[in-house]
From TrEMBL:
Record-given protein name: SAND domain-containing protein
Transmembrane segments: none
PROSITE patterns assigned to the protein according to its UniProt record, in alphabetical order: SAND (PS50864)
PANTHER family: PROTEIN ULTRAPETALA 1
Organism in which the protein naturally occurs: Gossypium schwendimanii
Signal peptide: none
Gene Ontology cellular component annotations, sorted alphabetically: cytosol; nucleus
Taxonomic superkingdom: Eukaryota
A GO MF term: DNA binding
Taxonomic classification: Eukaryota, Viridiplantae, Streptophyta, Embryophyta, Tracheophyta
Domain SAND per the UniProt entry, residue ranges: 17-107
Amino acid sequence: MENGIDKVSGSMLFSEEELIEVSGLKKGGDFVEVTCGCTSHRYGDAVGKLRVFSNGNLEITCECTPGCNEDKLTPAAFEKHSGRETARKWKNNVWLIVKGEKVPLSKTAFLKYYNQASKNGNGIHKAHSGRVCHRDEFVRCSRCKKERRFRLRTKEECRIHHDALADVNWKCSDILYDRFVFPLLIMFLYDKLHLSCSSLLSHAH
């Protein structure tokens, strides 16, 4: 369980009833993707692809123009990018197409993991740019059963963390030592070499 939310595959995130006639539906390894959009009275509809993850992350790839390369936007950033005049109400302004009609995100089931994550305070935050930023996250080693910390400051670090989450047989040794923040390097060496903490810390300094 990650931050109080079970990690499940994309095919099990939502019931069939919740996915009935939702446009652009695609089920990935740990996400569900659907067509979304936001309407500006001045610029019209900006369309994108919304990915919903079980840990509460919401990521939108914008497809407003053929040359647009904006991806991994938060819904708030997508709302702003679309030119929506009344911003900061993305739950109502960002819509999905359900049974051929535009339906506000807030009136669908696609916010349930986001709402649960917010309730649990799981470390999903919005930077000043509106993009997703994270605190450190943890993955449990399948061998020693201890939780290992991952830094989530760059796209590469987020990808490594997601890959580890997706691997049910993930072990501490599957990742290079410098991928961990420093305290976890100390703990890893302690476990591996059976040294005392004081001995390791004295060598580190």
